[in-house]
Design a protein that fits this description.
Length: 210
């Protein structure tokens, strides 16, 4: 039996996933958490084989959690399951230690396949991610400016380009508005843009937002 734990701050999503996974026959959901604090408790109290992790979490984001899990004495097999499209966070998540990445809109059968793949010790890479990795390898180490952003800067970039206010971004990332302003300044400097409109145009050109 494959033991699965889930970290997602939406109880309804966890319930739907739990029902789908438990119906698979060889998968059992043994623990659930809504944030990093609850995940830490799971790590102390239960054993599991695969962790399903969302990017958007209150407090520490899924990317922050991935970096923290790298310090665990036993490697944790993490499948990032999030609303964000692969173009935005997949490569970052894999670099941070995830073994797979899927959008929450994926068919339950694909999620089950991904879990089985990770449990077997292999990475789960979708064709879209494979293509993105291939493109990245074909540019002779010259990366787009947004790939040089830190995780927090990149999260700020996506939200700014989506039209969110600094106060809203601060609330979502559990940061102060002043800190988000600093990230905004750094992002604009690194992308060589002057306005939010130019920032949005950059993201559209690079397929970071629809």
């Amino acid at each position: 039996m494959i033991r699965v734990a889930m970290v997602d701050d939406h109880a309804l999503i966890r319930r739907g996933l739990r029902d789908s996974l438990n119906d698979a026959g060889d998968i059992s959901v043994v623990g659930e958490a809504a944030d990093y604090g609850e995940l830490r408790e799971l790590l102390r109290t239960i054993e599991f084989d695969v962790l399903l992790l969302d990017i958007n979490l209150p407090g520490r984001s899924g990317l922050d959690v991935l970096h923290s899990l790298a310090d665990q004495p036993v490697k944790i097999r993490v499948l990032v399951l999030t609303m964000h499209p692969e173009e935005q966070y997949a490569i970052r998540a894999l670099k941070a230690g995830a073994m797979g990445y899927l959008n929450k809109s994926a068919d339950p059968a694909q999620i089950i396949t991904a879990i089985r793949t990770l449990h077997a010790g292999r990475k789960f890479i979708t064709p879209a991610i494979a293509e993105a990795l291939a493109e990245r390898l074909s540019v002779d180490d010259t990366h787009a400016p947004h790939e040089r952003l830190s995780d927090r800067e990149f999260q700020t970039l996506i939200r700014l380009a989506s039209g969110k206010r600094l106060s809203d971004i601060a609330a979502e990332l559990s940061l102060s508005p002043k800190t988000v302003t600093v990230y905004r300044t750094r992002v604009m400097e690194k992308l060589s843009v002057q306005t939010n409109a130019e920032l949005t145009a950059y993201c559209l050109r690079n397929g970071l937002i629809d």
